[in-house]
Each structure stands twice: as structure tokens, then as C-alpha cells.
Amino acid sequence: MRMNLSELEIRVLGCLMEKELTTPENYPLSLNALVSACNQKSNREPVLNLTEPDALRALEALGARGLARLTTTGGRVAKYCHSVSDKLRLAPPARAVLAELMLRGPQTAGELRNRAERMAEIADLGQVEEILAELRQFGPPLVTRLPRQAGRKEPRWAQLFAGALEIAEEEEAEADTGEAAERSARARRAPVGASGNERLALLEAEVGTLKTEIAALRQELEELISSFS
What is the mean pLDDT of residues 205-229? Predict the structure, then answer.
């Protein structure tokens, strides 16, 4: 099933998954502990400032999807736990990788390898890549590989609990911008012996880039003039 979770719901679920693995002695979490985990400044991107009512709304929504529940374990204080293990049948290493993506956003396999091992034992980069491949083939997929950004050697991965279409489109736009810049650079350094068609294509790309830059400069100039009028 498609999750379509909100940013708040993803943060709450990610924190429950993280704390189960990192501090099992304090899990399930009280509402106060859960809010503190959500607002943690380390291992979080972005840093949020949630309230208890925010967390309760997220827990209610997650509960309706069978992803979190209230448990009576632990005395009189209400405590909460996730149901990802039961719902999705994921092993701790896979849950650790997913939790990292939920809590810190898109990351490379190498970054996930270094960061997820605080939650579960991960042998090497190959295991992370295997986990990502399995999560990608889940029904429906739980992660997606984003288009490689200009200047980056490794592609990043993103979780799909919110639906990553907008993220992917943003990454594609960034990649297109980088490719346009690269085409322009190739045009400027085209060898004298290049074919006419090749040189024409490279020059057209450069002209397109220059037009875009000129339009941006014109807009900045108009805004500057209007500020003095």
C-alpha cells in the first residue's frame, strides 16, 4: 500500500524505529520522550520544533494505517511503539536504513552505511546496497534512487513514505541544470577538428545558456531600478 505520510508522521515513525534499535531499554516511548526525539538536533534534517499535540495527531494518523500503536506496557504512563516490523516484515538492518532516510532525508549508500550502523549491525557497503535493492523492489517500493546530481559521484536514495515524486523532479531539475552547464563548457572547449554538426550543437547549447543568464541579469537589473524609483 502507498503510505502518503506527512513530514510530521514520517518524523514520528522514524523516531520510534530509531529508538527501538538504539535504546531498547527505554522503548516503547512516552509522549514526552517521543517529542524530545522528534526535536533532537543531532541526526535530524531538518531540525523541527514539534509539540505534544503535533505528535499525538501524527500518532493517531499512523495508528489508522497500522504503523504505530499505544501500548500499556511500562506502567501508568502511556507509551507508544511502531508496527513496521509486523506490517512490513523488515529486519533490523532494513529498518535502520529506512529510519535514517526518514530522519535525515536523501543520502548515498556510503552515508547510510556509516550512519545506520549505530542502530543495527551492518557488515559493509554491499549489505546496504542489497537492502536498498530489496526496499526498492518492495510492493510498492519503499525507496527510490534519485538522479545523480552534477558534481556528485554517487546517487542518493530517498524513502517513499511521503511519495518521492516531487523530490525526484527537483533532483532532475538540478541535474538538468548541471548538464546544461557541462554542455556549455564542452562547447567552449570544442576542438578545432570537431565536425560541423557537433560544433553547431555545442554552440547552440552555449547560446541557450547565455540567454538564460542574460534574462536573469535583466530581471535583477529591473528589480534594482524599481527599488530606487
Answer: 65
